[in-house]
Design brief:
alpha/beta, 2 domains, 13% strand
């Protein structure tokens, strides 16, 4: 599964996808470290990483500028192959949105857009803007040609498919919204201006203006005018270019899940969608899988309370019962996880496309822990 990551001729873009809370960011960082150790200049792009992950990578904090990860901070980790370097960057959607506006619009127009209150709202809060900007930053980084490998940790979403669908939804909303159809006839009064008097002549817009306020309506109209005349075609072309890149041999998708029902359903649905769209799929990573030791369980169940166990130390009856209860609970969880993975194997048909990672005892707090995760991923 991971041979394309370390292969010098492998894909240049690895996209980690999955629903929120399955460990995408940590696994993305581990994949980035794997690429760097193999000799690739690698960058991990992530949104809202956990504080402990920055610690694990030896960074004081994640920043919106590219940061180099020091790979010599852990004696337990081997030196990277020649050329191997690791970088990290936190994606800031608002900043990326602003950069796009400055790219497509003339200076006097971009200032008008950036100061527009409606633009400030959608660039921070509109559904789909984070996903669009993640794809945009990925495309920009790819075409800079600086890195051998780019690992994208997709934004935390309720559904894994939001990453692929949200950019087009964003363009559809801004290109075909109800308000846009109402307002567009009034935008041709002048090239860069409009007359609120004409707009307020519409009974519906007059009511809207009374509800949201005349200034808010003016901000909306001003943004939609510039969006239509300056930004829309550029944004649409970039969205299509990103989709072309992600459909090519230069990209590879990994579906990350935990054994619970909902994350597994999301991963399966995502896999089917990638197949339908003929997009490159690298496999499933099932994280936080419960496993147990039969030997300890058999000893607990065979040994009566107060008997000799654990190198001659007797176990108190209450402690024995608690240990046995905990073990039985672990067995049930492990059996449930194993059944979930078997169902996935039955659907996928190829066990080699599924990698499981055991539930860790502790959170990853340093680069040595991240390297241990890399070792676990690479192990058969």
């Amino acid at each position: 599964m991971f041979s394309p990551i370390v292969n010098p001729e492998g894909p240049k873009v690895i996209v980690s996808c999955g629903s929120g809370g399955v460990g995408k960011t940590t696994i993305s960082a581990a994949i980035g470290l794997m690429g760097a150790l193999s000799g690739k200049k690698t960058i991990v792009l992530t949104i809202d990483p956990a504080r402990r992950l920055a610690d694990a990578m030896g960074l004081s904090e994640f920043e919106t500028d590219v940061q180099r990860v020091p790979l010599d901070q852990s004696p337990q980790m081997p030196d990277p192959a020649p050329g191997g370097e690791l970088y990290a960057m936190m994606l800031e959607p608002k900043r990326t949105f602003d950069d796009l506006v400055n790219r497509y619009a003339a200076p006097e127009v971009s200032r008008k857009i950036l100061n527009n209150r409606y633009y400030q709202h959608i660039s921070n809060n509109m559904a789909g803007s984070h996903e669009y900007m993640a794809m945009e930053k990925l495309y920009e980084t790819y075409h800079q040609g600086v890195y051998d490998l780019i690992v994208l940790d997709t934004p935390p979403t309720r559904r894994a498919l939001d990453f692929l669908e949200a950019p087009q939804r964003l363009l559809n909303v801004l290109g075909h919204s109800f308000f846009w159809k109402l307002i567009k006839p009034y935008l041709k009064v002048s090239r860069w201006g409009f007359r609120m008097f004409n707009i307020m002549a519409s009974p519906i817009l007059r009511v809207v203006g009374q509800v949201v306020g005349k200034q808010a309506l003016k901000d909306l109209v001003g943004f939609l005018q510039v969006w239509d005349e300056v930004l829309y075609q550029g944004f649409r072309r970039r969205a299509e270019a990103v989709k072309t890149l992600l459909s090519s041999d230069e990209a590879l998708f990994l579906a990350i899940a935990t054994p619970q029902m909902l994350p597994m359903r999301e991963a399966e649905f995502f896999w089917k969608r990638l197949q339908a769209d003929q997009m490159p799929f690298g496999g499933f990573i099932v994280n936080r899988v419960h496993k147990f030791s039969h030997n300890m369980g058999e000893a607990l169940m065979d040994q009566p309370a107060g008997g000799e166990i654990c190198r001659g130390a007797s176990i108190d009856r209450n402690l024995h019962e608690k240990l046995l209860t905990a073990y039985q609970h672990l067995v049930r969880q492990a059996e449930s996880d194993a059944a979930s993975i078997r169902r996935l194997v039955d659907k996928v048909g190829d066990p080699s496309e599924i990698k499981t990672i055991a539930l860790a005892d502790d959170a990853i707090m340093d680069l040595a822990g991240l390297y241990q995760l890399v070792s676990n991923l690479e192990a058969d």
